[in-house]
Design goal:
Heat Shock Protein 90; 10 helices; Ribosomal Protein S5, domain 2; nine-stranded mixed sheet; five-stranded mixed sheet; 2 domains
């Protein structure tokens, strides 16, 4: 059968090194995509302190350091296998996912188009473990002295796919996307402290804090005095968050945040409904700040 395919077929399975690069184009579109995936993993690992370091808007370095549960020497290489995950064990689990990541695709995609170094240590272990993957080529796992948690460094993104690097925008634009990603994570996880350092400059240093204080820490102290809180609950959904006074409306979008069950999402109609509430106080093309959290109350969910 294989001989017939070799002689007559033009269809053939792609080798992993190629299929992973193709998958990376779907999962990893720009540096902020890497930041999002690494932040999701850190938060899912139970971290309450996360540090993000970027250089050249993530082109040359993206490093995320957390104090989460860490990984063993066996789990370390498995986290870079496609469709390997700790979040799903059965089909039923797909209907009660509470984590941010669960598909097991991101790390394999990141490793296929960058130079990755990962150090990780569990609290119960005497030492941690280190591994490197360059362009999908995995090296040995070796013992290392490191703090509890995980540190992942992603260097030279798309170094082996130069065509993709050409689609990246300016450093200013790419950094703006990274900070937007961090803002979503920081607003959704106020029980986690975040520090962001870009090219040696501290952009954010956010302790664990109430949502109102975090909004002010990210967007400016003037916001705190101008926030209106809301909190409503029905039999199937809970809604809470903050919206700004109309006088803080800006000419550009970018400070409108929607979440469903802790996950950021985009919804044109819901965005239109929220903005329309400001019509009496704002002009056309003015956009107020809001952070709107919806939690769907589903059977079997807390």
């Amino acid at each position: 059968m294989s001989e017939t395919r070799t002689r007559n077929s033009i269809i053939h399975p792609l080798p992993p090194e190629i299929s992973n690069k193709i998958a990376a184009g779907e999962v990893i579109q720009r540096p902020s995509s890497v930041v999002k995936e690494l932040l999701d993993n850190a938060i899912d690992a139970g971290a309450d302190q996360v540090k993000i370091i970027v250089e050249n808007a993530g082109r040359t370095l993206i490093q995320v350091i957390d104090n989460g549960c860490g990984m063993s020497d066996e789990d370390l290489p498995l986290c870079f296998e496609r469709h390997a995950t700790s979040k799903i064990n059965s089909v039923e689990d797909l209907f009660r996912i509470r984590t941010l990541g669960f598909r097991g695709e991101a790390m394999a995609s990141i490793a296929s188009v960058s130079q990755v170094n990962v150090r990780s240590k569990r609290a119960e272990d005497d030492n941690g473990w280190e591994m490197e993957i360059w362009g999908g080529e995995q090296k040995d796992v070796v013992p290392v002295a490191t703090d509890n948690g995980t540190s992942i460094s992603v260097r030279n993104l798309f170094f082996n796919v130069p065509a993709r690097r050409q689609f990246l925008k300016t450093d200013v634009t790419e950094l703006r996307h990274i900070l937007r990603t961090v803002q979503y994570a920081a607003l959704a996880s106020i029980d986690v402290a975040f520090e962001v350092v870009a090219d040696g400059e501290v952009i954010y240093n956010l302790p664990v804090q109430p949502l109102e204080d975090r909004i002010a820490a990210i967007f400016g102290k003037s916001y705190k005095a101008s926030l209106v809180s809301f909190n409503e609950e029905t039999s199937y959904v809970r809604i809470h968050g903050f919206a700004s006074d109309p006088k803080l409306a800006k000419k550009s979008r970018g400070e409108q945040f929607l979440f469903v069950n802790g996950r950021p999402f985009q919804h044109r109609y819901l965005t239109h409904v929220v903005l329309s509430l400001y019509d009496a106080w704002t002009r056309n093309n003015e956009y107020p700040f809001y952070a709107l959290f919806l939690r769907l109350i589903l059977p079997g969910w807390m």
